[in-house]
Design goal:
Helix content: under 10%
CATH architecture: Sandwich
Number of domains: 1
Order of helices and strands: EEEEEEEE
Number of strands: 8
CATH superfamily: F0F1 ATP synthase delta/epsilon subunit, N-terminal
Number of helices: 0
Strand content: over 45%
Radius of gyration: 11 Å
Shape: globular
Distance between the termini: 26 Å
CATH topology: ATP Synthase, domain 1
Structural class: mainly beta
């Protein structure tokens, strides 16, 4: 499992343990799972798709942002 936080300038949008997150990258969408190589990337307008540890899928529409991920934690800063 991996811990995810999605933060906008206004508030904390999401926090919790997940199995996978799909993000809208500058060169196309990409997924981050547990034990992913560290990454920092800019995000474009699109949808973030989250699958939590219970199989529940959640979506967030964003206008852009930044993601930083290590092997066990993902921080996403978004312009919503």
């Amino acid at each position: 499992m991996i811990y995810l936080e999605i933060i906008s300038p206004e508030k904390l949008l999401y926090t919790g343990e997940i199995t996978i997150v799909k993000l809208p990258g500058m060169l196309g969408s990409f997924e981050i799972m547990d034990h992913h190589a560290p990454i920092i990337s800019t995000l474009t307008k699109g949808k973030i798709k989250i699958k939590d540890t219970h199989g529940l899928i959640t979506y967030f529409e964003i206008n852009g942002g930044l993601v930083e991920a290590s092997s066990s934690k993902i921080n996403v800063l978004v312009d919503k």
